Design the sequence.
């Protein structure tokens, strides 16, 4: 993995010259002093710490709040590349919403035999409570974060569809804010599409999905698990940017058939709840009875059409890693078109032949838990020691249906700034998609995550990843 | 505004005020210890009592020692009112109400927390103490400045101010509660050096020694000091001043929400007692009784505000 030349570098071509989208930036960088840039880098960190842009790492009581490292070299995407990506993402997101509606209603896709019944029936992410229920405007996934990776000039793959409660959008916004403050001159030379409309778009999109049309005086609120949640900063940030209340379960109760929040003047009804709480914790009466984070009875209000929950409960069935391998079929089934964005080839370990292949090629593959996220419980074969491989083999043999495997992709690199100058590191990209009954909005750019360790392919912030500002150039 | 948010703002500013008050108490105690020849540590007992942490202190230590008392007041995590604990609690509440405060206020609180956490990571030597205490004062001023300069004058601001002045009224009353005997004419021996030291402690604890000198041309007498701390509306840490501010902010809320609540009746009673009372009358009826009643009323008012504005579910 140390041989970086076999990876596609997005900034520098094999002859060392900057590629098209990086032309102006490359020239600017040449003229800069490395020491000055390093100083800017330190300034950026101070900026993040003061603003309180931190995240909590589970299981690390000591370092309660940590910063996600920020790299000052932007990731640049041309208008042409972006246009193609957005078409593909939009197609995929439409298909996901159609799939969700179908799976909770007539289940045509199961009848057609395109997706096996067992994979739905035995899946914890499938919520029987949603059967026959149509959310307002038939929107299930109001907010989606589609994880993309790149392996070549025109080779993009979807790695994951985050259709539950994707996070990271606050970093997209703050990374740009930081870059604007530190390098204003760059933005006068290079025309970058703005991301700052996101909070306004989000609010509009949520209001448009309200149970009854209330475009102006619609009450939107964000539900957070609380101050100790790893993404609390983001929840507070978005509430602040949208000008809506940030509520916790104990601020809410059902009053006259509506979910209402306790204000200094009494209870006020909520029309749209952007919840950053998992399905299981949403309603102790309908789901996990131990939950302190949700609202008892909210599902009953929801079913009666008294509130919009974004994203809808039960959307997890669409971004489940076992479903992922069927996405090309799902896209085709509902849109009648071939999928524009490719899926990464995936072995479902539940199938005996696939399991055999995976066990035989463990050291070459990436193996993931079907329900895992955040890079926890994952094996990167080429980077694992013999001992780790042996241990994982045991887990895999014990519960094969809990895993899927994918080839180790030759992820593209974008340089980061190190003491010695630019050095290539692997990246992925999470664009943020907003879905309302009348339109789909994709903010130009998204969150670029970067594996800061040389050769590493794991970009998750909980595993030592950092972020970059992502620029989509104007036409 | 959410009830929880109102509560978070209220407590954020109570804790900020508390950290500053505790720092000032340490300063007063330290000053007395320096200027006193006999070197006994009695003064620290009354400082701990004033900060209402004598009980937890004696849970932890058997004897009073200046170093231990300072450390306990400044940075002990087992003391919920230590400067560091208060600042941490203020920041925790600020995180909770992040959407209600401006970026400037958040950054000032967050900066304060980061700076003090680092400064107070290790015990502070006597040599460094004045500088550290000055730092606490400066940081408080920074937060206050950010608040006054950037926040809208709406209900959010009112709840912040209620927290500040309820805590301040409580603090000044407790100083009087612990030291009331020094002010009683029956025991005081006017002009003795002991009393001068005691009076100075009281005034220093409320940063009022200079103001008092200017207003009285250097004449100190116990009744005058009590009058200054209880009734003088010009003195920003007096009971009258604090109660005046609470009255104003509760009145703003009454108007903004168009709702008169039980807390409004309570503050009217308290306010009348301070606007119509005189120091002579207080001494006649008993200074100690007056202060004990006042402390109880303030505690009750705090609870009533909490109920009336639905801080908790």
Sequence:
């Amino acid at each position: 993995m140390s041989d970086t030349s076999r990876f596609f570098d997005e900034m520098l071509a094999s002859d060392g010259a900057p590629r098209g989208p990086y032309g102006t930036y490359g020239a600017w960088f040449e003229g800069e002093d490395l020491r000055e840039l390093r100083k800017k880098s330190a300034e950026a960190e101070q900026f993040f710490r003061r603003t309180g842009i931190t995240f909590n790492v589970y299981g690390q009581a000591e370092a309660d709040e940590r910063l996600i490292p920020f790299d000052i070299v932007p990731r640049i995407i041309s208008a042409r590349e972006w246009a193609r990506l957005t078409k593909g993402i939009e197609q995929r997101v439409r298909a996901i919403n159609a799939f969700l509606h179908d799976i909770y209603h007539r289940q045509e896709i199961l009848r057609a035999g395109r997706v096996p019944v067992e994979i739905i029936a035995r899946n914890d992410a499938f919520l029987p409570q949603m059967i026959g229920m149509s959310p307002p405007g038939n929107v299930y996934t109001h907010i989606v974060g589609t994880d993309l990776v790149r392996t070549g000039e025109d080779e993009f793959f979807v790695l994951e569809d985050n259709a539950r409660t994707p996070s990271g959008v606050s970093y997209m916004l703050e990374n740009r804010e930081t870059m604007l403050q530190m390098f204003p001159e760059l933005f006068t030379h290079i025309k970058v599409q703005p991301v700052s409309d996101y909070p306004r778009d989000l609010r509009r999109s949520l209001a448009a999905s309200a149970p009854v049309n209330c475009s102006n005086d619609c009450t939107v609120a964000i539900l957070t698990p609380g101050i100790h949640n790893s993404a609390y900063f983001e929840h507070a940030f978005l509430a602040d940017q949208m000008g809506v209340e940030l509520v916790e379960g104990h601020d809410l109760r059902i009053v006259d058939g509506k979910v209402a929040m306790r204000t200094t003047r009494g209870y006020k009804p909520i029309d749209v709840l952007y919840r950053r709480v998992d399905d299981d914790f949403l309603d102790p009466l309908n789901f996990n009875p131990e939950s302190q984070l949700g609202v008892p009875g909210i599902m009953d209000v929801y079913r009666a059409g008294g509130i919009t929950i974004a994203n809808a409960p039960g959307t997890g069935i669409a971004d489940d890693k076992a479903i992922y391998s069927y996405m090309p079929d799902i896209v085709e089934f509902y849109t009648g078109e071939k999928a524009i964005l490719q899926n990464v080839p995936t072995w479902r370990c539940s199938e005996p032949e696939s399991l055999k292949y995976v066990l035989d090629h463990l050291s070459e593959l990436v193996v993931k838990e079907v329900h895992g996220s955040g890079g926890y419980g994952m094996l990167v074969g080429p980077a694992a020691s013999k001992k780790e491989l042996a241990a994982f083999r045991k887990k895999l043999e014990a519960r094969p249906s809990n895993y899927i495997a994918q080839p180790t992709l030759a992820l593209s690199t974008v340089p980061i700034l190190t003491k010695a100058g630019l050095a290539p590191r692997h990246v992925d990209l999470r664009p943020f998609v907003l879905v309302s009954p009348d339109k789909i909005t994709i903010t130009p750019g998204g969150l670029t995550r970067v594996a800061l360790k040389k050769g590493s392919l794991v970009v998750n912030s909980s595993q030592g990843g950092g972020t970059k500002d992502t620029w989509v150039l104007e036409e | 505004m959410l009830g929880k948010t109102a509560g978070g703002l209220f407590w954020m500013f109570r804790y900020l005020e508390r950290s500053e008050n505790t720092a000032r108490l340490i300063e007063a105690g330290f000053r007395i210890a320096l200027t006193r020849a006999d070197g006994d540590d009695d003064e620290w007992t009354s400082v701990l009592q004033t900060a209402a942490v004598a009980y937890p202190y004696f849970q932890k230590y058997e004897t009073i020692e200046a170093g231990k008392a300072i450390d306990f007041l400044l940075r002990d995590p087992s003391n919920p009112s230590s400067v560091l604990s208060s600042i941490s609690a203020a920041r925790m509440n600020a995180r909770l109400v992040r959407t209600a405060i401006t970026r400037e206020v958040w950054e000032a609180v967050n900066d304060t927390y980061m700076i003090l956490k680092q400064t107070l990571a290790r015990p502070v030597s006597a040599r460094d103490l004045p500088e550290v205490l000055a730092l606490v004062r400066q940081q408080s001023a920074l937060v206050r400045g950010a608040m006054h300069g950037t926040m809208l004058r709406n209900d959010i601001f009112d709840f912040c101010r209620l927290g500040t002045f309820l805590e301040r009224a409580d603090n000044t009353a407790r100083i009087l509660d612990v030291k009331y005997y020094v002010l009683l004419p029956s025991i005081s021996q006017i002009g003795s050096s002991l009393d001068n030291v005691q009076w100075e402690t009281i005034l220093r604890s409320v940063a009022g020694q200079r103001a008092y000198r200017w207003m009285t041309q250097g004449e100190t007498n116990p009744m005058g000091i009590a009058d200054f701390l209880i009734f003088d509306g010009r003195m920003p840490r007096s009971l009258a001043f604090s109660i005046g501010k609470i009255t104003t902010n509760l009145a703003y809320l009454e108007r903004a929400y168009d709702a008169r609540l039980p807390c409004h009746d309570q503050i009217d009673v308290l306010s009348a007692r301070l606007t119509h009372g005189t120091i002579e009358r207080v001494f006649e009826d008993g200074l100690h009784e007056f202060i004990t009643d006042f402390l109880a009323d303030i505690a009750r008012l705090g609870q009533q505000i909490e109920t009336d504005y639905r801080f908790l579910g």
